């Protein structure tokens, strides 16, 4: 049986231990020690990393009650020195205890219970049993503020095994699944959170540093909340500042002025698109008049050349303009080597243009469809556009 030093002393990073047995796990050597400060993966918390006797520890797993230290190489027999990666341990401790505080905060402020927890390499998530519509921006900020209040008060944290009568007196946030180890936040007489857990936790809540709720999304019948704690909050703030500065630079404004600058740019873009649509409609009407003046009786079949990018939209606008003038239009256009089709006719009796454009697009190696009086399609074989339009014209006259 391995003595688990991390349970009593989460700050212990260096220790000496004796090799009890050598195992194999996933093709790698794995050591069983008489005592260890390495935390094995479990409860949503990833395993520690570090070195044993100078050999890299690549994973730590609990298998059938044994703590297996998965190694990059063989470990010599006898006693070894162990060194846990302190930065990784501190990060996991901050994220895991921050989750406890955030889960308690959501239960206190929104009546939402945590059903699962995941500590990821970049962000963390908790799944709540409350639907997303109960967790709007105000509710997320309220839970975040409540959790950070627990952090900033630097409350005592106790993590130990409790006797049955002690457990009965604790306001447990969830029932213990295995064992009787409970993490308690607060002092006797003022227990602010109590939750069964076998992970690593600080001695005081202030070690978490800070908790930032990023977003909430629908997850099944409930919601998934993404968050960061401790040093990850600092890193995320720096990254957000960098991205804001990069976005502000082309607009020649300060990062704080970015929302107003983007709104102004969006308004200008909308105005320009509206003016472009007006000019395109005028050009399409003029092209329709030109085609109409030169057309013989029957469907008007032509390949049009758009004045700029947007062949499909231009061909459609011309076709609709001809239909508004009482004619059947079977038009094509080419852009970037791709053929586009736009068919239109006045409403009422006439050829089914959806079927015609489907056959014409298939001849171009593409797809198309639409209603009896308006349809569009496209295909990559632009060299066959004239022949596809000729076939559509014959079909329209049949």
Q: Main beta sheet, described? A: 6 strands, antiparallel, barrel
- Count of DSSP-assigned helices: 9
* CATH topology type of the largest domain: Threonyl-tRNA Synthetase, Chain A, domain 2
Distance between the termini: 89 Å
Write down the overall geometry: elongated
- CATH superfamily grouping of the largest domain: Threonyl-trna Synthetase, Chain A, domain 2
CATH class group of the largest domain: Alpha Beta
| CATH architecture annotation name of the largest domain | 2-Layer Sandwich
DSSP, total strands: 20
Would you tell me the overall average pLDDT? Answer: 94
Low-confidence stretches: none
Tell me what portion of residues adopts beta-strand conformation.
25-35%
Order of helices and strands: EHEEEEEEEHEEHEHEEEEHHEHEEHEEH
Q: What structural category arises from helix and sheet content?
A: alpha+beta
Comma- or semicolon-separated keywords:
398 residues, alpha+beta, Elongation Factor Tu (Ef-tu), domain 3, elongated, Diaminopimelate Epimerase, Chain A, domain 1
Description:
This protein has 398 residues and is an alpha+beta fold. It folds into 3 domains: 82 residues, Beta Barrel (Elongation Factor Tu (Ef-tu), domain 3), CATH 2.40.30; 155 residues, 2-Layer Sandwich (Threonyl-tRNA Synthetase, Chain A, domain 2), CATH 3.30.980.10; 122 residues, Diaminopimelate Epimerase, Chain A, domain 1 (Roll), CATH 3.10.310.40. The chain is 36% helix and 31% strand. It has 9 helices and 20 strands. The strands form 5 sheets. It has a 6-stranded antiparallel β-barrel with strand order 2-3-7-6-5-8. A 5-stranded mixed sheet has the order 16-17-18-20-19. The radius of gyration is 34 Å and the shape is elongated. It starts with a strand and ends with a helix. It is found in: Cytoplasm. InterPro entries: Ala-tRNA-synth_IIc_core, Alanyl-tRNA_Editing_Enzymes, DHHA1_dom, Thr/Ala-tRNA-synth_IIc_edit, Transl_B-barrel_sf, tRNA_SAD. This is Alanyl-tRNA editing protein.
């Amino acid at each position: 049986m391995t003595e688990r030093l991390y349970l009593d002393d989460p700050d212990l990073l260096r220790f000496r231990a004796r090799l009890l047995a050598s195992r194999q796990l996933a093709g790698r050597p794995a050591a069983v020690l008489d005592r260890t400060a390495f935390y094995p993966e479990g409860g949503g918390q990833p395993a520690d990393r570090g070195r044993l006797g100078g050999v890299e520890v690549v994973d730590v797993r609990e298998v059938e009650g044994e703590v297996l230290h998965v190694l990059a190489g063989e470990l010599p027999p006898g006693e070894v020195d162990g060194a846990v990666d302190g930065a990784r341990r501190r990060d996991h401790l901050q994220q895991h205890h921050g989750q406890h505080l955030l889960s308690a905060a959501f239960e206190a402020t929104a009546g939402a219970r945590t059903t699962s927890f995941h500590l990821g390499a970049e962000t963390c998530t908790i799944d709540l049993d409350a639907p997303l519509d109960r967790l709007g921006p105000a509710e997320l900020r309220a839970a975040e503020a409540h959790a950070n209040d627990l952090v900033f008060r630097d409350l005592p944290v106790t993590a130990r095994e409790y006797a049955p009568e002690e457990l009965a007196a604790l306001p447990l946030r969830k029932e213990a699944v295995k064992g009787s180890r409970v993490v308690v936040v607060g002092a006797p007489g003022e227990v602010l959170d109590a939750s069964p857990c076998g992970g690593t936790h600080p001695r005081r809540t202030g070690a978490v540093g800070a908790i930032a709720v990023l977003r909430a999304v629908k997850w099944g019948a409930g919601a998934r909340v993404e968050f960061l704690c401790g040093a990850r909050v600092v890193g995320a703030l720096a990254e957000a500042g960098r991205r804001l500065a990069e976005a502000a630079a082309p607009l020649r404004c300060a990062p704080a002025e970015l929302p107003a600058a983007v709104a102004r740019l969006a308004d200008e873009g909308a105005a320009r698109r509206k003016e472009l649509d007006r000019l395109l409609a005028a050009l399409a009407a003029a092209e329709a008049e030109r085609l109409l003046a030169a057309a013989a009786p029957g469907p008007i079949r032509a390949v049009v050349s758009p004045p700029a990018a947007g062949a499909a939209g231009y061909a459609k606008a011309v076709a609709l303009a001809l239909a508004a003038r009482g004619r059947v239009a079977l038009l094509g256009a080419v852009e970037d080597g791709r053929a586009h089709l736009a068919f239109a006719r006045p409403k009422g009796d006439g050829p089914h243009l959806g079927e015609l454009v489907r056959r014409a697009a298939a001849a171009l190696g593409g797809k198309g469809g639409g209603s009896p009086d308006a349809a569009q399609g496209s295909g990559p074989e632009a060299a066959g556009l004239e022949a596809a339009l000729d076939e559509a014209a014959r079909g329209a006259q049949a």
